Amino acid sequence: MSMQGPETRRAFRRAKAVIPHGVNSNFRYWGDDDTLVIARGQGAYIWDLDGRRYIDYRLGFGPVILGHAHPQVDARVHEAMRGGVTFAWTTPWEIEAAERIVRFTGVDKVRLTNTGTEATFHALRIARAYTNREKFIKFEGQYHGQVDYFMFSNASSNRRMIGSRRSPIPAAATSGIPKAVQQYIITLPFNDFEAVERTVKARWGDIAAIIVEPVLGNLAGIMPKPGFLEHLRRLADEYGIVLIFDEVKTGFRIAKGGAQEYFGVRADLVTYAKSLGNGYPVAAIAGREEVMMTIQPGAMAHGGTYSGNAVAAAAAAATLQVLEEDDALATIERHGRALMDGIRTILAEEGIPAWVGGPPSMFGVVLGVDEEPRDLRDYLKADADLYEEIGMELIRRGVMPDADGREPWFLCAALSDEDVAYTLEAFREAVRAAKG
Ligand SMILES: Cc1ncc(COP(=O)(O)O)c(C=O)c1O
Question: CB 3.0-4.6 Å disulfide test: which of 205, 209, 220, 331 passes with 127?
Answer without folding.
Answer: 209
